[in-house]
Amino acid sequence: MNITAAKISGKEIHEKYPILNIKWNYSHQIWDLNGYNGLNYNGDDGYYYSNYKDWSTEVVTDPWYREFISRNPINTTESESIFSTTVEGNKIMLIIYLKTYV
Question: 85 and which of 19, 45, 62, 72 could share a cystine (Cβ 3.0–4.6 Å)?
Answer without folding.
Answer: 62
